[in-house]
Amino acid sequence: MAVNGTGPYNPDNIFAKILRGDIPCKKVFENGWVLAFHDIAPKAPVHVIIIPKKPYVSFIDFSKNASADEIAAVMQSTGQIAADLKLEESGYRVITNAGQNAGQEVPHFHLHLLGGKALPPFPV
Ligand code: 5GP
Protein backbone atom coordinates (compact mmCIF):
# COMPACT_ATOMS: atom_id res chain seq x y z
CA MET A 1 0.00 0.00 0.00
CA ALA A 2 1.23 3.49 -0.81
CA VAL A 3 2.60 5.52 2.05
CA ASN A 4 1.65 9.00 3.18
CA GLY A 5 4.33 11.29 1.76
CA THR A 6 4.37 13.45 4.86
CA GLY A 7 5.20 12.92 8.51
CA PRO A 8 8.35 11.90 10.28
CA TYR A 9 10.98 9.74 8.65
CA ASN A 10 10.65 6.06 9.55
CA PRO A 11 14.14 4.57 9.99
CA ASP A 12 12.72 1.06 9.56
CA ASN A 13 11.95 1.58 5.86
CA ILE A 14 13.58 -0.80 3.41
CA PHE A 15 15.97 1.75 1.87
CA ALA A 16 17.20 2.76 5.34
CA LYS A 17 17.95 -0.93 5.94
CA ILE A 18 19.88 -1.07 2.65
CA LEU A 19 21.85 2.04 3.66
CA ARG A 20 22.72 0.45 7.00
CA GLY A 21 23.78 -2.76 5.25
CA ASP A 22 21.06 -4.72 7.06
CA ILE A 23 19.81 -6.06 3.74
CA PRO A 24 21.79 -6.42 0.51
CA CYS A 25 21.43 -4.54 -2.75
CA LYS A 26 23.00 -4.71 -6.19
CA LYS A 27 24.98 -1.51 -6.01
CA VAL A 28 25.42 0.61 -9.13
CA PHE A 29 27.03 3.75 -7.69
CA GLU A 30 28.03 5.25 -4.37
CA ASN A 31 29.65 8.43 -3.16
CA GLY A 32 29.51 10.42 0.08
CA TRP A 33 25.98 11.66 -0.57
CA VAL A 34 24.32 9.07 -2.73
CA LEU A 35 23.68 5.33 -3.11
CA ALA A 36 22.22 3.79 -6.26
CA PHE A 37 21.17 0.17 -6.78
CA HIS A 38 19.09 -2.00 -9.08
CA ASP A 39 15.38 -2.17 -8.30
CA ILE A 40 14.39 -5.58 -6.95
CA ALA A 41 11.36 -5.72 -9.27
CA PRO A 42 12.52 -3.90 -12.41
CA LYS A 43 9.89 -2.29 -14.63
CA ALA A 44 12.36 -1.94 -17.54
CA PRO A 45 15.66 -3.58 -18.56
CA VAL A 46 17.42 -0.78 -16.68
CA HIS A 47 15.70 0.23 -13.44
CA VAL A 48 17.97 1.89 -10.93
CA ILE A 49 16.95 3.50 -7.63
CA ILE A 50 18.97 6.57 -6.62
CA ILE A 51 18.74 7.72 -3.00
CA PRO A 52 20.35 10.35 -0.82
CA LYS A 53 22.12 8.81 2.17
CA LYS A 54 20.47 11.27 4.52
CA PRO A 55 16.86 10.66 5.65
CA TYR A 56 14.14 12.41 3.62
CA VAL A 57 10.62 11.11 3.20
CA SER A 58 9.68 12.70 -0.11
CA PHE A 59 10.65 15.09 -2.87
CA ILE A 60 9.26 18.07 -0.95
CA ASP A 61 11.13 17.05 2.20
CA PHE A 62 14.36 16.69 0.18
CA SER A 63 13.94 19.93 -1.76
CA LYS A 64 13.17 21.88 1.43
CA ASN A 65 15.73 20.39 3.76
CA ALA A 66 18.70 19.07 1.80
CA SER A 67 21.70 21.31 1.24
CA ALA A 68 22.46 22.68 -2.20
CA ASP A 69 25.51 20.40 -2.33
CA GLU A 70 23.37 17.37 -1.56
CA ILE A 71 20.72 18.26 -4.14
CA ALA A 72 23.45 18.77 -6.72
CA ALA A 73 25.02 15.44 -5.77
CA VAL A 74 21.77 13.52 -6.33
CA MET A 75 21.18 15.21 -9.70
CA GLN A 76 24.78 14.83 -10.90
CA SER A 77 24.95 11.21 -9.77
CA THR A 78 21.74 10.39 -11.62
CA GLY A 79 23.07 11.93 -14.81
CA GLN A 80 26.38 10.13 -14.45
CA ILE A 81 24.65 6.78 -13.87
CA ALA A 82 22.42 7.28 -16.92
CA ALA A 83 25.47 8.10 -19.05
CA ASP A 84 27.54 5.22 -17.61
CA LEU A 85 24.70 2.81 -18.41
CA LYS A 86 24.75 4.06 -22.03
CA LEU A 87 21.22 5.43 -21.88
CA GLU A 88 21.95 8.83 -23.40
CA GLU A 89 21.43 7.85 -27.02
CA SER A 90 18.51 5.47 -26.55
CA GLY A 91 16.72 7.63 -23.96
CA TYR A 92 15.58 7.15 -20.40
CA ARG A 93 13.11 8.39 -17.81
CA VAL A 94 13.72 9.77 -14.30
CA ILE A 95 10.74 9.90 -11.94
CA THR A 96 9.90 10.12 -8.28
CA ASN A 97 6.68 9.00 -6.61
CA ALA A 98 5.55 10.99 -3.59
CA GLY A 99 2.70 10.05 -1.32
CA GLN A 100 -0.38 7.89 -1.65
CA ASN A 101 -1.78 9.19 -4.93
CA ALA A 102 1.54 8.63 -6.68
CA GLY A 103 1.88 5.12 -5.22
CA GLN A 104 5.05 5.74 -3.21
CA GLU A 105 5.80 2.49 -1.40
CA VAL A 106 9.11 3.25 0.27
CA PRO A 107 9.12 6.38 2.46
CA HIS A 108 12.74 7.35 1.76
CA PHE A 109 13.02 9.86 -1.10
CA HIS A 110 14.28 8.20 -4.26
CA LEU A 111 14.54 8.63 -7.99
CA HIS A 112 13.76 5.85 -10.46
CA LEU A 113 16.00 5.73 -13.54
CA LEU A 114 14.30 3.66 -16.25
CA GLY A 115 15.55 2.73 -19.70
CA GLY A 116 16.87 0.04 -21.97
CA LYS A 117 13.71 -0.24 -24.08
CA ALA A 118 11.02 1.93 -25.60
CA LEU A 119 9.11 2.97 -22.49
CA PRO A 120 5.31 3.20 -22.51
CA PRO A 121 3.89 6.71 -22.82
CA PHE A 122 4.13 8.68 -19.62
CA PRO A 123 2.86 8.05 -17.00
CA VAL A 124 4.39 4.62 -16.59
P1 5GP B 1 8.10 3.67 -4.95
O1 5GP B 1 6.79 3.00 -5.26
O2 5GP B 1 8.25 3.94 -3.49
O3 5GP B 1 8.35 4.85 -5.83
O4 5GP B 1 9.22 2.64 -5.40
C1 5GP B 1 9.82 1.73 -4.53
C2 5GP B 1 10.64 0.78 -5.37
O5 5GP B 1 11.48 0.07 -4.50
C3 5GP B 1 9.82 -0.23 -6.16
O6 5GP B 1 10.11 -0.12 -7.55
C4 5GP B 1 10.27 -1.58 -5.59
O7 5GP B 1 10.38 -2.60 -6.56
C5 5GP B 1 11.63 -1.24 -4.99
N1 5GP B 1 11.99 -2.07 -3.84
C6 5GP B 1 11.19 -2.42 -2.79
N2 5GP B 1 11.86 -3.19 -1.92
C7 5GP B 1 13.12 -3.30 -2.41
C8 5GP B 1 14.29 -3.98 -1.93
O8 5GP B 1 14.31 -4.62 -0.89
N3 5GP B 1 15.41 -3.88 -2.72
C9 5GP B 1 15.42 -3.16 -3.88
N4 5GP B 1 16.56 -3.13 -4.57
N5 5GP B 1 14.34 -2.51 -4.36
C10 5GP B 1 13.20 -2.59 -3.63
Q: What CATH architecture would you give? A: 2-Layer Sandwich
Low-confidence stretches: none
Mean pLDDT: 96
**What compounds are bound to the protein?**
guanosine-5'-monophosphate
Strand residue percentage: 15-25%
Notable features of this structure?
124 residues, alpha+beta, HIT family, subunit A, 5-stranded antiparallel sheet, 3 helices, 25% helix, 20% strand, binds guanosine-5'-monophosphate
Summarize the structure.
With 124 residues, the chain is α+β, with helices and mostly antiparallel strands. It contains three helices and five strands.
Overall description:
It is built from three helices and five strands. The chain has one domain (14-115): 2-Layer Sandwich (HIT family, subunit A). It is globular and about 40 Å long. It has helices at residues 14-20, 59-65, 68-84; strands at residues 27-30, 34-38, 46-52, 92-95, 111-115. A hairpin with a 7-residue loop joins β2 (34-38) and β3. 25% of the residues lie in helices and 20% in strands. It is of the alpha+beta class and 124 residues long. Bound molecules: guanosine-5'-monophosphate. Guanosine-5'-monophosphate binds next to loops.
Layout of helices and strands:
Blueprint: H1 14-20, E1 27-30, E2 34-38, E3 46-52, H2 59-65, H3 68-84, E4 92-95, E5 111-115
Antiparallel strand pairs: 1-2, 2-3, 3-5, 4-5
The chain binds guanosine-5'-monophosphate.
Protein name: HIT domain-containing protein
Organism: Acetobacter tropicalis
Domain HIT: 14-124
